[in-house]
Structures
1.
Amino acid sequence: MKTSFTSNTIAYQFNFSTYSYQVLFLLKVFLKASYLCIKEKKIIMLKSIIMLAITTAKRPLHIVLADDDDDDQEFFVEAVSVVAPHVKVEIANDGEELMELLLNKKTLPDIIFLDLNMPRKNGHICLKEIRANKKMLHIPIVIYSTSSNSEQIDSTFKAGANLYIPKPESFGDLKLIAKKIFSLNWEDSVTPDKNNFVLSAKNLA
């Protein structure tokens, strides 16, 4: 028995086939658009992650602490290791050792932390010698002293120190100060400013 097809049946089959093709085509377009959208979002997300990594990454810093007190050295190194693990601390036990280290080094430190009351050569003399040396003139110098004497603060500011830190009494305050110090942009150096020359935990509270 043969099945007879009318013109309406053929038209219906043709329309259904065309409709199915259109649906499949639209579905294909949608899937491709979705894929591109997801891919673009992934690219944007990846770029964001890369930018975040670049902005949050810390360039390794090499600093020198000139201080003759063993306990102060230990507390300083420990505080820096906690708040700024990207910072390498080198110790000079007095002013004479500091100047020998600086004069014989091929690569100079990024920052010098300088105690004032040291044997053989004190911090005041070291500061003047460093600022008189063209090779070392650009190195930021942070005075790190037990003294809060206004005359010493004024004299070190005039001699070219960048910051003055009275040694804090607690380890927590030292960490707070260290965190602030290493959040500054030392690559552009910190221009000495008399109004902000002295940095203490009280200033940061």
2.
Amino acid sequence: MVAALAVLTAVEAGYQAAVMAPTEILAEQHFMTFRQLLEPLGLRVSLLTSSLKPRARSAERAALAAGETHCAVGTHALVQEDVGFRRLGLAVVDEQHRFGVEQRARLKAKGEHLDLLVMTATPIPRTLALTLYGDLDVSVIDALPPGRRPVTTAARTEAKRRAIYTFLGEQAAAGRQAYVVYPLVEESEALDLKAATDMARRSRRARSSSWCPPRSSRSGSTCPTPRSCSSSTPSASASPSSISSGDASGAGRGSPTVFC
């Protein structure tokens, strides 16, 4: 929201804006958000990434150079030499620690005396150094968005793993979602840490004896033992370590999906 207001201010002053994100997925998310917020106000928002087809990429570059596009959202593609702006006045860099100094400099060079807004939730030594030596003015957002409830944090030991899965199953049955994060993707001989793939296999094997949804969420069916309670099996494309509500509402098709 802060970046969108900055873009709107720049455009109202007669300038263009560029929003750069480190990955295509994040750039696409920003593009959809900015388009939803700004296009109803008459601003044209475009997406520029390396995956665009040559014809579409050429059309977007031409619109930027002609000043027809007010805000360009993209990845590193924005700093390529063949990308030019008619009057760039604001550059927004999200997850700025993921970009190098030269990349940010190339984006700034596409405008004259433009304003630079960098955003990060992960301050690194370089960011702190820029702040310390006066190259950045810092704005801290320490208030929750309207309607956002406080986050409850709790620490549990390995002995509570079954209780954790029970809690997640209850939340999934209530129509909510959950995700499980591990420090590694694959097992490592150098690090004694849990890996997502290994824990996913364990969770899948344990699913047959996992938590059983309450009768109210199973359309009145009986469940004499936890092992006899059926649960959907995640597809090959789904992350086996995820615990998802799936079609929690049922949409008239039966019990909720519980993945463990």
3.
Amino acid sequence: MSNICTLDISADMLSDWRSHLLNAEQDARISQHVPGCAACQVIIGQHERIAQSLRQLPTYPAGSAVWASLHTRIGRRPLPQRHHLGEYMRFGVVTTLVLIFALFFSFIARQSAGSTHPQISTPTPIRGTSTPTLSPTPPQTPFAGQPTYSNPLTADRQDGWSTSNDPNGSCRFASDGYHLLSPPSHGGFCANLRLYEANFALQVQMTFIQGSLSNEGGVNFRGVGAYGDASYQFGVNADGRYYLAWCATSNCSHVLVSGVAADFHQGLHQSNILGVSAQGSSLAIYLNHRLLQKVTDSHFAQGSIALTSGSNNDHTPNEVVYQDFQEWSL
């Protein structure tokens, strides 16, 4: 790939694209162009590093002494004794400034409290399915705080998720989630090329509604290429077997780790929550908020996200429904 952008796309336009500020025509043009443009990917990586540095800046909660000082100053302020316009205006300006400072420190305090006691959203169960009963998210997992991106996947919000109705596999939205259907002995994935990330954590609820125990679903991440199909893949079968591999253009035979998840809810109409974290060369996979395995690998540094579906036999198609996708920048 060339280091010069063939479309001469500016850094400002790439920033607007990542922030969903472009019109539909510009958005579609850049979404198709970025995966194959090394120059644009370098700029996007620079944007991500700047954003990560800003997120790491410390916040300073207001202490009790600040509130006491504000309260004392407000209480000692004498009221105007004469109905003079100038005095009322001075009093109003001072009061307004005090209130602005009070609201600012209150906002900082709430932000600090929110980071101390994170709240994780509870996935919406699909009708007729069971939802895993989970203890509160352990503090060592990365799925904490306010997500940088969140989508229930129950309707097409035009924010990058692909839709198709191909005989070899389909991606479609419905009221109960994002449906991925694969015919017998076929596999496929539905990508969001706009979610182009380097260091992040994500989680999503997965439910098999058609197929057998040998069929699988999962998450591809750091995908590169025109379709994002050269990537890492976290695959999970309906019987609880799992693996993490790196894929060279859909060939995912390079397995890094594998195993059988003890806390997996097997079979059809059983919901499980998949999780991934990637920071530099450190990769980790989770199931129902519990760490499965960690591994170090550096084949892919950044790229797009995709959800997968695969039928591993000649007899049954595979249909997987995904809900409540959340992502955090690390």
